[in-house]
Specification:
Layout (H helix, E strand, L loop, with lengths): L3 H16 L2 H35 L2 E6 L6 H4 L4 E6 L6 H6 L4 E7 L14 E6 L4 H28 L20 H10 L2 H20 L1 H6 L1 H7 L4 H38 L1 H6 L6 H27 L4 H16 L22 H12 L4 H26 L28 H23 L6 H23 L4 H4 L9 H28 L4 H13 L2 H48 L3 H21 L2 H32 L5 H15 L7 H4 L1
Parallel strand pairs: 1-2, 1-3
Antiparallel strand pairs: 3-4
Helix pairs in contact: 1-10, 2-10, 6-14, 7-10, 7-12, 7-13, 7-14, 10-12, 12-13, 12-15, 16-17, 16-21, 17-21, 19-22, 19-23, 19-24, 20-23, 21-22, 21-23, 22-23
């Protein structure tokens, strides 16, 4: 039983010493107090001066001779014009910046200005969008020419005794119905959520390092561990301290950033201030803070877990920096067009928080969606904390001489018959980096088809690294990857297709729901359908089924799952490997579905202890998917749009069949299972 008073005392002690750290105070308190006002004052002054400079700056435009009669109407103090018989021959001068814009004749007309003329003078305005002078010149000359065109149009209509409405059978006006509060909320909602999330993670970054590896270096962690306090209570005290620091950082940044936006709008002028209003109620502020608590707990648990793996603060920074970079990516979801808060996105880590905060600022949030987002954040927190305590039970994490986690990303000579946890992490990072660097070259190389590129990717990027590692450190490859022929059982090979079909039924059901709220892009469906147009059918199935089935199983189940199992145990290794399997497939619309299939394949591997069974199941799964694409690709989109739920008897039947067949899978013999 945990002693709440002891945990609270540890929390008070850690928080007191943490807040005495001048570097932390500077980072989370003083910097926001200084930087945001300076940003508002300096930014408004800088922007104001820049706008004045742009307004007064003279720009040069070269016009065709046919417009010389309108020189007095076109020239202004800031618009310097000159004429040339053939402006299109002066394009090099535009590229060099000697002119800011050119107006060339696309369709010639000698009497376009006559009131009884029916001809049109076609003009083309050339400019360089990368230069602000050129941008300004094109806008100004376009407005001037628009005025002249309107006058000539009125002249022609008057000559024909026609009203000006003759050219406008439909009158249109665009009116923005958004209130100033919503406009201001939209502007802030694109920026503020990202900044809040990033500052939260930065606060956890520094405090987690200081409370873990920092104490290791100072030698105070061992003293704390020797005290008569249970290990879990020490961890919870440190954990609560990091959460408190994150929430403190969020509060300070919200306070000073809100003032910064208000001051910035005031400095921009009365017109902007009347059209943009930033207004957040106390209720919304309270709900934001409540939502930040499980998020802060998730980040704190994750940062602590990684920090404790390091032997020094320098190593901790090296470990946390890539993690921080990855976590920053989904924080910009609120500013991405097309990303809306839905039942699906409300369950995605960090993405849900970014979109929910934006919904708060815009005023489009609902309590049901808030509760769903809050529940998802609690779920993420529970998963991270469970994993953290699983890691914290290993005493060698706190040993500064430990090499298992301290060298997690650096391979060392193997001394056991199966891959280690550090080898699994190292190989996954290597494969992911190679796929990022060379994947596009292999798949989109004009020398071969996309399908052949996928084959090369499977062999060179996915299969080669784990095999090279095993050979280099002299593992017995057959035993290390569980490829013994003796582990092949005919009964399993007869049962696996039926179990795979049951799993695919539930994956299809999940995909239908996902596509309803988060539709897959059309080009993604076209990409999969194009496989059979650019390569023979047999080659597509060979690469997509046999090669992918074997190569990916060697990497994810034979190497990564087996390696992580030595540190995390079967259950957590299964979950982590399935998550990595989904993430590795990159496509957001396929990650979760692929992760679910990874759970099935991981369970099968742990149950049978044979990688052959996994390669067979993986190949069968891909064969079903490719057959569906080949046969029903044309109508797949229509089916997704019209169908949300599969028949309930089908789902219940699939579940029952799967549970029954589980009992008939022949497991690995005890001496070979682990």
């Amino acid at each position: 039983m945990l002693d709440k008073q002891r945990i609270f005392n540890i929390f008070k002690k850690e928080l007191k010493f943490t807040l005495r750290d001048p570097d932390l105070i500077l980072t989370i308190i003083l910097l926001p107090m200084i930087i945001y006002p300076l940003m508002a004052l300096g930014g408004s002054i800088f922007v104001g001066q820049a706008m004045q400079k742009v307004e007064k700056q003279q720009v040069k435009v070269l016009l065709p001779e046919v417009l010389r009669n309108y020189e007095s109407r076109l020239a202004t103090d800031s618009l310097l014009i000159s004429f040339s018989p053939k402006p299109d021959q002066e394009l090099e001068k535009l590229k060099k910046g000697e002119f800011d814009s050119l107006v060339v004749v696309a369709t010639a007309s000698a009497n376009f200005a006559e009131k009884d003329s029916l001809e049109t003078l076609g003009l083309r305005i050339l400019y360089d969008s990368t230069r602000w002078r050129s941008d300004k010149a094109s806008d100004e000359i376009y407005d001037k020419l628009q005025d002249i065109r309107q006058d000539l149009r009125e002249l022609r209509l008057k000559d024909k005794n026609l009203p000006s409405e003759f050219f406008y059978p439909i009158g249109m006006k665009v009116k923005d119905i958004a209130k100033p509060e919503k406009k201001g909320g939209y502007m802030v909602g694109n920026i503020l959520p990202m900044i809040i999330i990033i500052f939260s993670m930065l606060s956890a970054f520094y405090s987690a390092i200081d409370l873990t590896t920092g104490e290791k270096e100072r030698g105070t962690l061992e003293t704390l561990l020797l005290s008569p306090v249970p290990f879990n209570e020490i961890i919870l005290g440190k954990f609560l301290t990091i959460v408190a620091v994150i929430l403190l950082s969020v509060g300070i940044n919200l306070l000073f950033m809100g003032g910064t936006f208000q001051f910035g709008l005031y400095q921009m002028g009365k017109i902007i201030s009347e059209n943009l209003v930033i207004q957040i109620s106390f209720k919304v502020t309270g709900l934001i803070f409540l939502l930040m608590i499980p998020f802060a707990a998730t980040v704190a648990g994750l940062m602590m877990s990684v920090s404790f793996m390091a032997r020094s603060m320098k190593e901790a920074q090296n470990y946390l920096a890539p993690l921080l970079s990855i976590m920053i990516i989904p924080s910009v979801s609120g500013a991405v067009p097309g990303m809306d808060l839905s039942s699906f996105t409300a369950c995605l880590p960090i993405v849900n928080l970014s979109l929910m905060l934006k919904a708060f600022f815009v005023g489009e949030w609902t309590m049901n969606m808030y509760l769903l987002t809050f529940a998802a954040c609690l779920g993420h927190c529970a998963i991270v904390m469970a994993l953290a305590f699983k890691l914290f039970r290993a005493e060698d994490i706190f040993d500064r001489g430990s090499s298992e986690f301290a060298h997690l990303f650096h391979p060392v000579p193997a001394t056991q018959t199966s891959p280690t946890a550090r080898a699994a992490v190292f190989i996954f990072g290597t494969v992911a980096a190679l796929a990022f660097v060379a994947g596009d070259f292999l798949q989109n190389n004009p020398r071969w088809s996309l399908v052949t590129g996928l084959a090369l990717l499977q062999l060179l990027i996915i299969l080669a690294p784990p095999l090279i590692y095993l050979v280099f450190y002299r593992y017995r490859i057959i035993a290390a990857l569980d490829l013994q022929i003796s582990k092949i059982h005919l009964r399993n090979f007869l049962i696996i297709p039926f179990m795979s079909i049951c799993v695919l039924i539930f994956v299809v059901q999940f995909t239908l729901i996902q596509n309803h709220y988060f539709p897959a892009p059309d080009d993604l469906n076209e990409l999969f359908g194009s496989f059979f147009e650019i390569a023979p059918v047999w080659w597509v199935f060979f690469v997509g089924c046999l090669m992918a089935g074997f190569c990916e199983e060697v990497l994810f189940r034979g190497f990564i799952l087996k390696g992580l199992q030595t540190r995390l145990g079967k259950n957590w290794a299964l979950v982590m490997t399935s998550a990595l399997f989904g993430i590795f497939h990159i496509l957001p619309h396929k990650m979760i579905a692929t992760g679910l299939i990874g759970l099935w394949l991981g369970y099968l591997y742990l149950k049978t202890g044979s990688l052959w069974a996994n390669a067979y199941a993986h190949a069968f799964n891909n064969a079903i998917a490719l057959s569906a694409i080949y046969a029903f690709h044309a109508s797949a989109k229509e089916v997704h749009e019209k169908t949300l739920f599969l028949p309930l008897p089908l789902l219940i039947g699939a579940l029952v069949v799967f549970l029954v067949l589980m009992r008939f899978i022949k497991p690995a013999s005890p001496e070979k299972a682990d």
